[in-house]
Amino acid sequence: MPRHFSASLISVCLLLGGACAHAQGRYALVSIGNSTYMGNAQSDGDAALTTAGQTGISSSVSTRSTGYKALLGYQLSPSFAVEGGYWDIGNLAKYQATASGGGLNVDYKGMGLNASALGLAQINSELSVFGKLGLTYSSVTGSGSGPGVSVSSTEEKASLGYGVGGIYHLTPKLGLRAEWERLYSDVTLFSVGLQVKF
Description:
alpha+beta; 2 helices; 9 strands; 68% strand
């Protein structure tokens, strides 16, 4: 992980922790789920092979992986909350190709920070639904090599993130939360986790 990205992660987590330490209505969430990649890894890999003078390129990209996230939040009112934290989608995508001079395999990994505002609606005493909108800071790294060609890249960017979901309240302090969200322009995550008020 780049040093300045690590520093940003630590700073945001400390700020969120400090803000929530003195707040009422605070909660923590840990979730796991499946991410879907819709980026340009395949065309970028094919272009690298073409630039290296290879022909007869046959390639594919895996588009699904397992991701998780850990968040801290504060519910300001029954209909509004703010939250932020860290997500990691591990092997975001894997590019594999064969060509005239050999093959190329590239692994892409993704992680980042997210801060969002949530609008909530209570359906009944056990179920709430929500929509969320926020900012995601992401880092995507790619590395791999093959005969006559190698790929090493790091892309860091800030982008708009949004999503929808629901919370099933198992007890007044414990809820089962499921949500779909677009972390940034070419990655979505569907996750399920436990939300705990403290």
